[in-house]
Amino acid sequence: MTAYPPASEHLNSVRRPRSLHAVFLLGPSMSYHFYSGIQALRSFRKVLSRRLLRTRMFYRPEEQKLAAERKLRGREQYRRLQQADIALVSFGKSGRTWLRVMLSRLYQQMHGLPEGVTMGFDNFHRMNNAIPLIFFTHDTYIGDYTGHSDSKADFYGKKVVLLARDPRDVAVSQFFQWKHRMQEHKRAINKYPKGGSDVSVFDFVMKSDAGLVWVIDFLNTWAREAPKMEDFFLLRYEDLKSHPQETLAKLVEFIGTPASDEQIQAAVEYSSYENMKKMEAENTSWLSGGRMAPGNRANPDSYKVRRAKVGGFRDYFDDQQVEQIEAMVSADLLPFFGYTREEQVAREAINPPEPD
Hints:
Elements: H1 21-26, H2 28-56, H3 62-83, E1 86-90, H4 96-111, H5 123-127, E2 134-137, H6 142-146, E3 159-164, H7 167-180, H8 184-189, H9 201-207, H10 212-225, E4 231-236, H11 237-242, H12 244-255, H13 261-270, H14 273-282, H15 319-332, H16 341-350
């Protein structure tokens, strides 16, 4: 397991010659939207294939339909994984959209691409194949297709970035995602409580199968499997928040696309909380697959960019509830990410927090 490849081995040195036919025919801006349009059409085709599957299984029990759809989704994602240069894995609500916007702005600067469209799987790569194929995945369905539900064997030969966030913050953000943004079919296929259920944020976090139990299990599996990866980079949300320039620079060095300090700084500024909140309110990133659109503009809890606060989970619970949540994390989460009490105490002993 390595941290970074040698600088001489970055992706620009091994790519095929850049394909420019669409740029010459349409111009950079039009070709950019052309490839993003292809991405949107692919998404439509995936939705259609899932609906056709359910039609063919019309008389089957709902449980069988959901299992078949999970396997279909897993096959789609496994194909992407096989094609990808980088697998960027995260549990939902760990900051993936923020990171996606940050990387989008970085590659736009590096390769002269216009603003306005979020990076998908291959729309940027098609514009300039010096930009790697990055597979952004929550790693939810691949195991249903391959049968590797208890390991990450499907990722062993890949360069992997794991974006991790404090599971306590993730679980609370998942509550608001479930309550205000999630479609009912998505709730069903991933075994969330039904929409409209009378579930408090504490019960969701502590008692629901979609709460801390799921997040911790996801992180623990990756903690056990990380040493088996050939190239693995642990990217913590909290490090990206506290030291964004330094952390982003290390990330793109690992990816194989090192950037200048000026490009890093501009990407960080563009993806600031304030600017992303503004982009979501104005629906600026119009081909981002609904990632940057509120569920209800009148409800601040329905926004994709909601609070982005480290340790914000404490704001929703009393002291006794916070203690129960922290005890569960410290007891059940493997000491790999720095989120258990023991790890935090050890870290503070080395780097004492600055006084207020």
